[in-house]
Amino acid sequence: MIDISKKAFFFAAVFLCSIVKSYGQYVVFMPMEYFTKILAREEIGYGYAISNATYKFKSMGNNGLPDTSISQNVTSKAGFTEHVGYTFPISKLGDRSRLGMDIGCNVNLFTWDYKTPTVMTNSDGRPYYSFTENEFDFETISGQIEMPISLDARFGNLAYYTKDRFGWAVGAGISPMIGFATDNNSAGFGFGANPFIKAEVCLFAGIAMKLRSQVSFGRIPFYDENKSISYDISGYNTSSSLTGHVQASVTLVVLPFSWLWAEKGWWNTY
To answer: In the chain, what are the domain boundaries?
Structure first.
């Protein structure tokens, strides 16, 4: 008779083997399906960005400085954007259209060319503000890290990720962001969340490539007076801010894993 310990060992061995077999099947068969669905929707892109803003500077007149208030409307001199994103399908809209949620991360960098005040002293030692050109081609560097979240109506190959030639999408959403900037005499940061609209056109040619445009509007904080840090004018009661109003970008986006998209044929005609 087989004793109890040998029976227990036998059943334990069978149980472990079944787990290993099941896990092996998962490892072998699941990754391709998983990665096809997940990786096929990832995207990365680079492009050009532009923004307009208002620069404000205010001095409360101390240590011999007069009260000063400045406001300038400015436009970025150069801009760059980097984008990564992912789309989650939500529901079917039609035979070749679908509603999706798009989540991304954008890093935007800008240069600005406007005059900022610097404290100088005249011959009798009294301080005053001087507005001189910077030795560089730009006065200020600013940037943003934003996370645009939108609901998109998606058509053609962007709806069901098939290797059709063309696709397009339109959407709207909100973009939480962190802004930062530094100029000749100050630096700072700001926080905000701005509405935006977007549009995309897609061409599939071996892999999918999209031209993506986005326009944000509202109060876009690069930095504000409550979060500014003074440099050259330390020791004086001053504040400054750079606040955007409208910001636009055009980005060339590549979906590097779009070769995993399904072939279109009689078996998946929508």
So the answer is: 43-260
